[in-house]
Design goal:
Blueprint: H1 5-15, H2 30-36, E1 40-43, H3 65-73, E2 82-88, H4 95-106, E3 110-116, E4 129-135, E5 147-148, H5 180-186, E6 192-193, E7 217-218, H6 223-239, H7 247-258, E8 263-264, H8 267-273, H9 288-296, H10 301-312
Parallel strand pairs: 1-2, 3-5, 6-7
Antiparallel strand pairs: 2-4, 3-4, 7-8
């Protein structure tokens, strides 16, 4: 259930139109939830009221209204047995979090909180997120007096991270090459990943649209090869302090940067870093811009999958 028609079209493409509704959560009633006979609620409320870059208006932000509405529904929905919520790191110190926990306690749910990242699950991508799992009936067999920063019992810990080369597509179109204007002005602030590395930055909905802090870029060169090229670029910059470099110097600099073969990760590669299955597809009409926005707003499937196991295991 979502108001984003593009997201819903992707969902329907993969799972069928019978399982998706385009509507505002705030119009959902207890009676409707009862008709659905749903026993599990999985949610990822808008993160903007809690992000570091935002105004952090918390429950005063209109985008928190849907969560407030859900918190009012939870005590009234008798069929609900399991709940999982995901949000940005920082949600754990919000008023919205307190409101949510109060709703769980009024409804006699047992609950546990986590701050986790996919690198703890053998996935070479950093994406710290807040999670809360809650259930009725038997309590969880691990302590609830803290926010867990690892899976209890060492689950999914101490594994070797996959290398980026394992998720990279072959014969990627030149359309994904970093444009010359970005190479010229912004390349030195980009997070550049090489095939043998086992890491990548958190991808956001602004990936490819903004350069800094929205996700990593990829080069097929080794770390040593690209380092050598960037040292030559820095040498040109050091030896040419003038604000207006000659056209010849600029061409030399750009020719060097072209040798790095720097490109953006494709939507499929980002989906792999988010642990989406290979058979997950976007409808043909979905643009790359829309794909990046959806993926940047999404969750890591591996992390959530492991939490659902933890939530439902007796």
């Amino acid at each position: 259930m979502d108001i984003n028609t593009v997201a819903n079209a992707v969902y329907a493409h993969n799972y069928g139109h019978n399982f998706v509704k385009t509507r505002n959560i705030q119009s959902l009633s207890v009676k409707e939830v009862g008709k659905l006979q749903a026993n599990m609620l999985l949610m990822s409320p808008p993160c903007q009221p809690h992000t570091r870059q935002g105004l952090q208006k918390d429950t005063e932000d209109k985008r928190s209204d849907a969560l407030t509405h859900i918190c009012g529904l939870i005590p009234e929905c008798q069929n609900l047995q399991y709940i999982l919520m995901e949000n940005v790191k920082g949600f754990e110190i919000s008023q919205a979090r307190n409101q949510f926990i109060e709703a769980l306690e009024r409804s006699e749910f047992h609950w546990r909180e986590f701050i986790l990242t996919p690198t703890q699950f053998n996935v070479p991508n950093t994406r710290y997120r807040y999670y809360c799992i809650a259930r009725k009936g038997a309590d969880f067999p691990f302590a609830g007096s803290k926010i867990w920063e690892a899976m209890p019992g060492g689950i999914a810990q101490n594994q070797n991270l996959s290398q980026i080369s394992e998720i990279v597509e072959e014969n990627v179109s030149s359309d994904f090459l970093v444009p010359d204007d970005v190479l010229t002005k912004r390349v030195l602030v980009m997070d550049i990943i090489h095939p043998a590395q086992s890491r990548s930055m958190c991808f956001t909905k602004g990936y490819t649209h903004y350069t800094e802090g929205t996700g990593s870029a990829y080069t097929p060169l080794s770390e040593e090869e690209s380092h050598r090229i960037f040292e030559l670029v820095k040498e040109i910059d050091t030896n040419n302090h003038d604000d207006v470099k000659s056209e010849k110097i600029l061409e030399q600099r750009l020719d060097l940067l072209h040798q790095v073969k720097l490109r953006y990760f494709t939507p499929r590669e980002v989906a792999r870093l988010m642990s989406f299955p290979e058979d997950f597809e976007f409808p043909p009409e979905t643009t790359n811009r829309q794909k990046y926005r959806l993926l940047g707003n999404s969750i890591n499937v591996k992390v959530v999958g492991e939490l659902i196991k933890l939530l439902t295991i007796k």
